[in-house]
């Protein structure tokens, strides 16, 4: 009989993590904080033909790939099924059909092995990716989170507790990158393509910064920046003038990222928390990585910057957050459902 209350917490557990919230089917295995395997099968190339993620295609791709990524991860880790102490899985936020593939698989696996199921919030997975690069990392630290759906600065206080210091009031930073890519005629996925184009440009175009003047709280806004890029292009087109796309991409990138860096460092200094981490797809951006590295160095702040492959969607971060939840005994019941949206807190 599968009974959540019977499970004991072991030191250095082997946790298998599964991620299927968007277009990556991924499985990773950790023992304690040590990563044993990290497998991923992406449907991004198929999705690129449609200019973005088509939910039905994502679900079908997960169905075809989930068995293979899990088997490959077990082989890579050199373990057998009976070595697994817990199964962690993304239950939200994301595309419902896509999530259900990973969640159903994880439930079946946890049930058949009679081990705890750990339901992981995808965004908290991104926040936990820093532990992959620095297994000895201990809270407190300040986290800069920037993905396709979220942009926030957080104060991580313990393995499972954190405070949101500020966030976006409209679009997320990654979303703005994707929209800017569309305006520039760049294919999906937009963020990396904007970065590539920006590399050949100069920041000569004046665009609004994405920081809201709000004395009450720290607030970002990306909708004005997005509109400014669209308006700039319309104006140029109406005048029959050529657009320097590389300059526009570079100017956009700077406007989108500089305030995040400035405020992350400010939060660290104001709170006296001299460790900064980062997570989410936008953290794979080279301009952001360089700027954050320089800013932290200048202020003597220790920076834990996850490798790029742990910034974009992956299962290692789900296993990593799974361990945080496991150590606190936060086990899920088998009737847990997938959720398209979950608040950050
Ligand atoms: O974390 P993620 O893989 O998925 C979500 O949970 O949303 O983030 C995806 C977002 C997309 O908006 C993508 O364009 C952006 O991260 N992104 C980048 C880069 N790589 C991915 N944005 C800017 N520069 C990049 N190199
Ligand atoms: Zn993500």
Describe the structure.
The protein is an alpha/beta fold. Helices cover about 40% and strands about 20% of the residues. It has eleven helices and eleven strands. Strands 9-8-7-6-10-11 form a six-stranded mixed beta sheet, sandwiched between helices. Strand 6 (about 140-145) and strand 7 (about 150-155) form a beta hairpin. Helix 6 (about 175-185) packs across helix 7 (about 190-200), helix 6 runs antiparallel to helix 9 and helix 7 (about 190-200) packs across helix 9 (about 245-270). The longest helix has 27 residues, at about 245-270. It is globular, with a radius of gyration of 20 Å. The two termini are about 35 Å apart. The model has no long low-confidence stretch (mean pLDDT about 95). It binds 5'-O-[(R)-(carboxyoxy)(hydroxy)phosphoryl]adenosine and zinc ion (ZN). The site of 5'-O-[(R)-(carboxyoxy)(hydroxy)phosphoryl]adenosine has 21 residues, from helix 6 and helix 7.
């Amino acid at each position: 009989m599968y009974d959540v209350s019977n499970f004991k917490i072991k030191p250095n557990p082997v946790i298998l993590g599964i991620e299927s919230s968007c277009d990556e089917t991924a499985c990773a295995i950790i023992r304690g904080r040590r990563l044993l395997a990290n497998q991923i099968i992406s449907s991004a190339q198929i999705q690129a033909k449609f200019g973005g993620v088509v939910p039905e295609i994502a679900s079908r791709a997960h169905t075809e790939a989930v068995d293979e990524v899990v088997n490959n991860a077990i082989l890579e880790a050199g373990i057998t099924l009976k070595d697994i102490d817990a199964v962690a899985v993304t239950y939200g936020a994301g595309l419902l059909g896509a999530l259900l593939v990973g969640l159903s698989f994880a439930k079946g696996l946890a049930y058949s092995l009679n081990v705890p199921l750990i339901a992981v919030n995808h965004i908290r997975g991104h926040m936990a990716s820093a532990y992959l690069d620095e297994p000895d990392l201990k809270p407190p630290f300040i986290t800069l989170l920037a993905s396709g759906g979220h942009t926030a600065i957080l104060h991580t206080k313990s393995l499972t507790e954190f405070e949101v210091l500020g966030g976006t009031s409209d679009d997320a930073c990654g979303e703005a990158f994707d929209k800017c890519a569309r305006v520039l005629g760049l294919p999906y996925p937009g963020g990396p393509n904007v970065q590539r184009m920006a590399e050949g440009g100069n920041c000569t175009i004046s665009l609004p910064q994405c920081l809201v003047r709000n004395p009450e709280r720290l607030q970002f806004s990306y909708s004005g920046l997005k509109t400014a890029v669209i308006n700039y292009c319309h104006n140029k087109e109406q005048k029959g003038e050529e657009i320097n796309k590389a300059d526009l991409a570079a100017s956009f990138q700077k406007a989108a990222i500089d305030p995040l860096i400035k405020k992350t460092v400010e939060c660290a200094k104001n709170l006296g928390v001299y460790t900064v981490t980062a997570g989410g797809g936008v953290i794979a951006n080279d301009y952001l990585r360089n700027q954050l590295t320089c800013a932290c160095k200048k202020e003597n702040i220790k920076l834990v910057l996850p490798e790029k492959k742990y910034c974009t969607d992956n299962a290692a971060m789900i296993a990593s957050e799974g361990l945080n939840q496991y150590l606190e005994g936060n086990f899920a019941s088998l009737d847990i459902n997938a959720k398209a949206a979950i608040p950050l807190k």
